[in-house]
Amino acid sequence: MIVHQLVILEGRDAGQVHLLEGPQIVLGRPGSGMENTLEFEEPSVSRVHAILSRCEETETFEISNRSFTNPVRVDGVPASGRIRLTPGARIQMGSLVAEYRRFDSEEQTARPEDFTVMGVLELLGDGRPTARYQVTGKRTLIGRASHCDIVLESTAVSRLHASLHWIGRNLVLQSLTVNSTTLVNGQPIPQGASLGPRDLIILGGEVYLRWVPQEIMEEEEERWREAEAKILIPTVTPTGARPATSASWTARLGDFLFGAPLSARIAFLEALRTQMETGGSIATAVMEAGQTTLPRQAPGLAQGLLAGESLSESMKRYPGTFGAYETSMVRAGEEAGTLDSQLRVLEVSLKETLALCRSLQDHLRWPLVGSAGVVMLALLPLLLRQGFQKWILAVLSTLAASLVLLAVLGLLIRILYSWHLLRLHLERLLARTSTFGQALRLQVGARFLEVFGSLLASGLSLPRAAQLAARCTGSLHYESHLLQSVSQLGWGASVQEVLSSVDFFPQEVFEQIGQGEDEGRLPALLAHAAGDLQRRARAETEKVLGGLFLVCLGMGLLLLLLGLTTNHLLLF
């Protein structure tokens, strides 16, 4: 007799085992009003979250989604249509994770191989095994999520990264990630791969595992003890790198003084994304990408990675080069296992910022040249009284004093803006203005929706994806508003209801979000809404450009006046 079970692994109902009986079973919370319902206490599960349908011909169950707020996922993949469940499949509904099991009750006691150790996966670090994970005869999930059979803490590994299952006497590795971040002996495995003794598995370009079957495990262990041989793993030894510790205030000040320009950071992100596509370690990719783009920062970044820091943590050691927006985007990509995608989004956003800065420079070029002419005319009496040499000296010293004052003011603004409290008050002040506030709100909304959609598509849960996206807006003021709103997502509220409490999303955005929840296409419609908001943000930014032009021109004239006054006091 075939027995079907649903074992709850994670969530408020963890530990429960449910026998699956009947042609159709509803999965949800109490109060659905439907017959043959498995009811869970987990609040993130919808009243009718999914339906299990029995297929008599194949003696299996198929699952279909009924929650458009938080679609059911099978092995990390959103359920679109009916999905046939295989033994060991992991089902995620909100924060509840369950495993589907199917076995013949008469043969259940005759299957010790399910619990017999068939071999081990060795985690390799510094050229030697640092940990061992037993592999039994049942299906094994590998990832960063707590319900995986083999839990790896590295941010380069996705929540559900790969699985192991047996076909006869062959162990097969299957990648569960969207991107090709699972390699066997350096080769991608889009269709899975059968593992042989001592095969090297690379996850996320950074985590190295080696498969050692039971029959050669003792021999392999003895060989390691006697020869102390090292496995050749690509590593990087940065020249002049310092230990991965928190940067001192002098190092931070130095980064503010000599931080890389925006164009160099964009070039670094482009090169890093290209290097990551080759499948090497993230530390090697950072060193290769930063050799020509960020030569001062790259060794420290790579050293931090080799010491166990994530890339986002290493970036925080250079506050003059990388802002909070950039580190938050990288952190979101690391947690979701979609670092390359988030780097691409960040690269596009920084290019738009660079284009805005260059447009402002073009607008200011001739007014500043005219201001220099005003200085020359203001010092014309000096030319008539003391001659050309004194006059040109006064003009040059006035312009030099103005440039020095401009550099000092710019450095002071950058340092003060990195101070959390001052930045928060400045953003609140800008948010109250009609022109700057509208442009800021549209930009924040576009960034939030774009990152939110991409994180949902990667397999992150709805509440966690929303929290990470709220930190990827580049605005401390609106970040707090978004975090407060999205905290309700873990308690059954829809995305449309939650975001309606935030006042900077247009009505048509709510309509698209509602449509996405109803049709189960929330990530795609979030990306579409983000594109609409981004176009509006560009239009508002062009209007803001005029105001920025007047502000910068006024500051330039003030600095020239200060330089002129300073020069007058020094000469006369």
Sum this structure up briefly.
The protein is α+β, with helices and mostly antiparallel strands.
State the main characteristics.
6-stranded antiparallel beta sheet, alpha+beta, single chain, Tumour Suppressor Smad4, 22 strands, 4 domains, 572 residues, Receptor-associated Protein, 49% helix, flat, 17 helices
CATH architecture assignment name of the largest domain: Up-down Bundle
Percent range for helical residues?
Answer: 40-55%
Q: Could you please say which CATH topology of the largest domain applies here? A: Receptor-associated Protein
Shape: flat
Strand order of the largest sheet: 2-1-11-10-7-8
How far apart, in Å, are the first and last alpha carbons? 106 Å
Beta strand %? 15-25%
Count of discrete structural domains: 4
Taking all residues together, what is the mean pLDDT?
75
CATH class of the largest domain: Mainly Alpha
Uncertain parts: 106-112, 227-246
Describe the structure.
- With 572 residues, the chain is α+β, with helices and mostly antiparallel strands.
- It has four domains: 3-107, Tumour Suppressor Smad4 (Sandwich); 117-217, Tumour Suppressor Smad4 (Sandwich), CATH 2.60.200.20; 260-346, Up-down Bundle (Receptor-associated Protein); 353-386 and 419-571, Receptor-associated Protein.
- The chain has helices at residues 214-227, 249-258, 262-276, 282-293, 298-306, 311-315, 324-336, 339-378, 380-386, 388-417, 420-432, 434-458, 462-470, 476-486, 495-499, 507-519, 522-571, and strands at 2-10, 17-19, 24-28, 37-39, 50-55, 60-65, 73-74, 77-78, 82-84, 90-93, 96-104, 119-125, 128-135, 140-143, 150-151, 162-167, 170-175, 182-184, 187-188, 193-194, 200-203, 207-213.
- The strands form four sheets. The protein has a six-stranded antiparallel β-sheet with strand order 2-1-11-10-7-8, with no helix packed on it.
- Strand 12 (119-125) and strand 13 (128-135) form a beta hairpin.
- The longest helix is centred in the C-terminal third of the chain and has 50 residues, at 522-571.
- The chain starts with a strand and ends with a helix.
